Amino acid sequence: VHVSGNIGSSQEIDKILLSNGDGVGLFRTEFLCMDKDSLPTEEEQFIIYKHAAEMLKDKPLIIRTLDAGGDKELRSLRQQKEENPAIGYRGIRICIDRVEVFKAQIRAILRASSFGNIKMMFPMISNLNQLRYCKKVVEDVKNELINESVEFNHNIEIGIMVEIPAVAINSKSFAKEVDFFSIGTNDLIQFTLAVDRCNENIAHLYNQYDPAVLKLIKFVIDNGHSEGIPVNMCGEIAGDKKLIPVLYGMGLDEFSINPGNIMETKYLISKLSKEYITERIDNLLKLDTSEEVENYIDTHIINNLF
User: Fold this and answer.
1) How many angstroms separate the CA atoms of 46 and 151, rounded?
2) Burial letters 45-65, b for 16+ CB under 10 A, else e
3) DSSP element (H, E) containing 231
4) Dist CA 29 CA 13 (whole Å)
5) Residues paired with 157 in a beta bridge
């Protein structure tokens, strides 16, 4: 089990290394564009990714392609206001539409892949056709770089964010076409429960202990493992002290969290008995309400582990 960090810039890698973290599980590249009038060029991105990879040496660096839109508006994209931005023009939908932006970023990622253990991840994928299109763009860019005699890792791993229920439900099919999953629980929870996590009026309905959410997570982990790929998590609940034992018992392969919490999370996991927790996962997933789930975790898992 690996414990990695979520970052928005290469400056945060020092925190991961000081905490003995296992790499970067999520590089939020959209943070490179915040409060700027233009998107970073291919060369600017290449320098940043190369520097990050060299800092990490052989530790993995998972770079998520531009995840703009939703609650992350970028001036440089001149996005129009939407009534439902969370389920609107965002993530990979923008990249597919703005393929020149997408290609520039993929070129930068591939070029930097010669300098470390870089992996590529697509956000907000909702169907297999989108994934296959993105993989084709990657192959096109690879061919361009080959023709230009530019070195890169020809076997770079490609993964997707699992954050839309349709992808979670169809995760067995997706697992046949990617090298890894990363569960984005922030969006997966809000989409599963139909709760806008930015709306204060219904914030109380956003609940990570909801049985439907936990069943989907277990389903994705099982489907990923059945096809031989690792399943990571980069959403907020990967750092939830009550849910860390549950996710560990479900078989999650990597927790990607705030760099400041890596050491504490690694210590917590080191004290857990996977066999003990795994034996109780089935009973946990049979419960009907989030209150029952949280109470079960407190009384049958947390209190008996420490």
Assistant:
1) 13
2) bbbbbbbbbebbeebbbbbbb
3) strand 231-233
4) 14
5) 119
Distance CA 115, CA 49 (A): 9
Stretch (H or E) spanning 7: strand 2-7
Cα–Cα distance list, 221 to 21, 152, 277 (Å): 22, 30, 16
| Token pair recorded at residue 298 | 């407190």
Distances (CA, A) of 131 to 103, 105, 207, 223: 15, 16, 29, 17
What pTM, to 2 d.p., does this model score?
Answer: 0.95
pLDDT greater than 80 at residue 94? yes
What's the rounded Cα separation, in Å, for the pair 163 and 72?
Answer: 16
Q: What is the DSSP string of 52-106?
A: HHHHHTTSEEEEEP---BTTB--GGGTPPP-SSGGGSS-THHHHHHTHHHHHHHH
For the record, the structure tokens of 295 come out as 């109470």
Identify the band that residue 303 occupies on the pLDDT scale cut at 50, 70 and 90.
confident
Q: Are 198 and 212 in contact (CB under 8 A)?
A: no
Amino acid at 149: S
